[in-house]
TrEMBL record:
It holds the Pfam family TrmO_N. GO terms for biological process: methylation. It comes from the Bacteria. PROSITE patterns: TSAA_2. This is tRNA-methyltransferase O. Keywords: Methyltransferase, S-adenosyl-L-methionine, Transferase. CDD domains: UPF0066. PANTHER family: TRNA (ADENINE(37)-N6)-METHYLTRANSFERASE. Belongs to the tRNA methyltransferase O family.
Length: 158
């Protein structure tokens, strides 16, 4: 098997409500054409959770109040997983091409979280018109815009 090498392209900067993706200036030219996309998908590393114990966790005991008693890691969005990779769809507030910075409305990452990649959100490839989810989470918001006002704290057991 070929050696796998993943390079970080930047980091998340969170200072209060000011959230940005700060790219390494090497990647500034990769921002060409990103203007006009309202949302992007950011793949980032859950660096705060990267340790052997968390990487070996393959199931969770009832992580959500309405979930089955045991959920496999791949049925959760937990940072405790074999590769602590996170995926967030975020709204772009501005793009500063000169300084290689993308303003974000919100991201659940920590300040300093390494960023692995960025992809534009395109409904033709990323939106599922009629997704089906298990009954235990069917009352969750149906879209990104509704998620910000949802009482997620009432869903989690920990």
């Amino acid at each position: 098997m070929a050696e796998l090498k993943v390079n970080t392209i930047g980091m998340i900067a969170c200072h209060g409500e000011d959230m940005r993706l700060v790219l390494d200036k090497t990647y500034a030219s990769a921002l060409a054409g990103l203007d006009g996309f309202s949302h992007i998908q950011i793949l980032w590393w859950f660096s705060e959770c990267d340790n052997p114990k968390n990487r070996s966790k393959l199931s969770e005991i009832k992580p959500y109040k309405n979930s089955p008693e045991v959920l496999g890691t791949f049925a959760t969005r937990s940072p405790m997983r074999p590769n602590p990779i996170a995926l967030d769809c975020v709204q772009v507030t501005y793009i500063d091409h000169e300084n290689a910075v993308i303003g974000l409305s919100y991201i659940e990452a920590f300040d300093g979280s390494p960023v692995l990649d960025i992809k534009p959100y395109t409904p033709s490839l990323d939106r599922v018109e009629n997704p089906v989810v298990p009954e235990w989470c069917s009352h969750w918001p149906k879209c990104y815009e509704e998620s910000g006002n949802f009482a997620w704290e009432n869903e989690m057991n920990s």
